[in-house]
Write a structure and sequence with these properties.
Layout lengths: L4 E2 L2 H19 L4 E6 L4 H17 L2 E6 L5 H10 L5 E4 L7 H7 L13 H8 L17 H12 L17 E5 L6 H10 L3 E5 L4 E5 L8 E4 L4 H4 L5 E4 L18 E4 L16 E3 L3 H22 L3
Parallel strand pairs: 1-11, 2-3, 2-4, 5-6, 5-9, 9-10, 10-11
Antiparallel strand pairs: 6-7, 7-8
Helix pairs in contact: 1-9, 2-9, 6-7, 6-9
Bound molecules: nicotinamide-adenine-dinucleotide.
The site of nicotinamide-adenine-dinucleotide has 24 residues, from α6 and α9.
């Protein structure tokens, strides 16, 4: 087996950031992104710092606004109608319950850079690739799932020379995380490209099956366990938010691609003895995708002259 490549998110992000920077400079524009921080989560603070740093380098005007969680909805509604703001993001969790979902849906779909609102999420589950009936505005894809697709593209697993719907054909993928914001939409996106996807969480393993256009995604419960699906997987993606969780290296198939998006290491250091490619973190690519989504929405706002 050839040696494992450890692929750094910063290398992949740099390609996108250079392109974003050039586009902003060539068009002489100043897209504005507002980030609402209404919690004390250190991970959110770190994410906000990366976003500020990346935006200042690419030419995006980023305003981080600290707001009381009880004032957040009002701030979002005001930002929706403020024509000087092109994108809105919120650092979750805020309330840690159904209210967070409610807030995600208060952001206008034309400013939803994170792709967490109903329209973006529904389009992922229904394999709907455009936001409008005229197919002029491509759907906004949630940032971290999109980042993981771009990482798979970088390491030549996601084949852009194949037609849509077949770009991950014949791949078996395990995702250990089924959160509404990352693991679940990611499972749907990868299944929509022809992969067999096993979605693992604490309660069970589900399979996500390829969907037909405009139909809801097919999700089935199985009797399988993580130890059954990891050894058959070509790609294993982890997002378990606890410090002690590890995927046992001995379960991994030789040559597997391993991607960790959790803030904690979910693979042991000896993962490189089995993997062909190992991506220890994805955060910097997520921020690049946030800016990419912002530019796309900025364009839509100019075309449609609606906000
Ligand atoms: P979450 O708490 O909403 O979801 C965690 C998921 O992991 C759930 O589906 C849960 O059932 C599953 N899980 C927990 N323990 C498990 C176990 N032992 N076995 C199997 N499944 C288990 O968290 P989240 O918002 O999805 O974030 C997860 C991690 O990813 C966090 O560390 C977060 O900081 C990180 N994150 C990173 C990015 C990025 O771009 N880098 C983006 C979002 C989240």
């Amino acid at each position: 087996m050839t040696a494992c490549k450890t692929v750094l998110a910063s290398i992949i992000a740099a390609r996108f950031r250079n392109h974003i920077k050039k586009t902003i400079s060539d068009l002489n524009i100043k897209p504005t992104l507002v980030g609402f921080l209404a919690n004390n989560d250190p991970a959110a603070k770190k994410y906000a710092e990366w976003t500020a740093k990346s935006c200042s380098e690419t030419g995006v005007n980023f305003n981080l606004i600290k707001v009381d969680k009880d004032e957040l909805e009002k701030s979002i509604v005001e930002a929706n109608s403020d024509k000087s703001i092109n994108g809105i993001m919120v650092y979750y969790p805020i309330f840690g319950n159904h209210l967070d979902l409610y807030l995600q849906n208060r952001v206008s779909p034309l400013k939803d850079v994170e792709g967490l609102g109903n329209m973006a999420v529904r389009n992922v589950y229904q394999n709907k690739r455009f936001m409008d009936d005229g197919n002029s505005m491509k759907s906004i894809i949630p940032c971290t799932p999109l980042a993981i697709i771009k990482i798979l593209e970088f390491i030549d697993q996601y084949k852009t020379d194949l037609p849509y719907g077949t770009r991950l054909k014949d791949k078996t993928i395990t995702i250990i995380n089924r959160s509404e914001i990352v693991g679940k939409p990611l499972a749907a996106l990868l299944a929509n490209e022809g992969a067999t996807v096993y979605s693992v969480d604490q309660s069970n393993v589900q399979t996500f099956t390829e969907m037909n256009l405009n139909k809801n995604c097919k999700i089935l419960d199985t009797d399988l366990k993580c130890i059954h699906v990891v050894p058959r997987s070509d790609i294993v993606i982890t997002g378990v938010p606890t410090p002690n969780y590890r995927v046992p290296t001995k379960l991994l198939k030789p040559g597997v691609v391993c991607i960790n998006f959790s803030t904690f290491a979910n693979f042991d250091p000896d993962v490189t003895s089995k993997a062909s490619n190992f991506v220890p973190s994805v955060g910097k690519v997520t921020v690049a995708m946030l800016e990419r989504n912002l530019l796309r929405l900025y364009n839509y706002q100019q075309q449609k002259d609606i906000r």
